[in-house]
Amino acid sequence: MSTGISLQGKVALVTGGGRGIGKAIARRFAEAGANVVIASRKLENLQATARELDGLPGKVLPIACHVGRLEQLQNLVSETEAQLGSVDILVNNSATNIGQGPSLDVTDEMLDKIVDINIKAAIRLVRLTVPQMMKKGTGSIINISSIAGIEPQPQGMLYSFTKAGLIMITRSWAREFGPAGIRCNAIAPGLIQTDFSEHFWKNEEYRKQLEQTQPIPRIGQPHEISHAALYLASAEASFVTGQVFVIDGGMTT
C-alpha cells in the first residue's frame, strides 16, 4: 500500500514488532522504504513476521530481545548498527499489562516488572540511540502509550500509571531533544484488536458496552495505528513534537 510518504534510507527500530501494533508499524515503515529492525522475546514470531514482510521495499530484520534486560537492549542496538546503521526512528511499543485487579493486591514483583518493560526499556533505548541521532541532527521517537494513560483503566492501576508516565516522558524528551533536531511524540490507542488486548475485546459484556457508547462503534485495528506512526516518523511531521495522538474511535470523548 503506497501512502506517498517515503522513509527511504532510514533505519527504524520497533520493539514488540512481531505482532499486533508493532507488526503493523513495521509493515508500514518497510512499505515506505525504511530498513526495520523488529524486536521481541520470541525469535520465532519475529522470523515469521520477517518472512511475511519479505519483498517490501525496506528490509525487515528480526532480533530477539527481552526489553526488560539492559544487556539485551545493548545488544539489540549494537546489532542494528552493525547490520543496518544507526537508528533514525525509534518506536517504543513493547509493553506488559500485569497486575489487573485491585491496587492493594499489587506486589513489588509486579511493580518492578511493569516499570522495567513499560518505562525503563524506553528510557534505556533512548539513552542508547539518541546520541547518534544528535550527531546526524535528526531523528524521531514514537512512544506507544494508551488512553489508559489519560483516563485510568478499571482495575489497571499499574498499566495506567506507566502509560501516563510515558506521555510525560514524551513531552520531556520533546523539549530536551528538539533543539538537536529530534522529535518525540506519543500515540495513545484505544481498544485495538490484538493478542495483547484480547482480555478486553473477547469479553462480550465489555465489547457490547463499547459498541453502544463509543462514537465509532467498533474495535480498532492495528493498521489504523500504523498510519499515524508513519506520519510521525516522516518529514511530513517535521513541525510536530511533544504531542499525544489519541486514536480510540472517540472513546475518550
Element layout with pairings:
Elements: E1 11-15, H1 20-31, E2 35-40, H2 43-52, E3 60-64, H3 70-83, E4 89-92, H4 108-136, E5 139-144, H5 157-177, E6 182-189, H6 198-201, H7 204-213, H8 222-233, E7 244-247
Helix pairs in contact: 1-8, 3-4, 4-5
Order of helices and strands: EHEHEHEHEHEHHHE
Largest sheet entry: 7 strands, parallel
The protein's oligomeric status is single chain
- What proportion strand? 15-25%
Q: What's the overall average pLDDT, rounded? A: 95
Structural class: alpha/beta
Overall geometry: globular
Q: Kindly report the spatial arrangement of strands forming the biggest sheet.
A: 3-2-1-4-5-6-7
Q: What is the count of helical runs?
A: 8
Would you give an account of this structure?
The protein has a seven-stranded parallel sheet, with helices on both faces. The mean pLDDT is 95. It has eight helices and seven strands; from the N terminus they run βαβαβαβαβαβαααβ. It has helices at residues 20-31, 43-52, 70-83, 108-136, 157-177, 198-201, 204-213, 222-233, and strands spanning 11-15, 35-40, 60-64, 89-92, 139-144, 182-189, 244-247. Helix 1 (20-31) packs across helix 8 and helix 4 runs parallel beside helix 5.
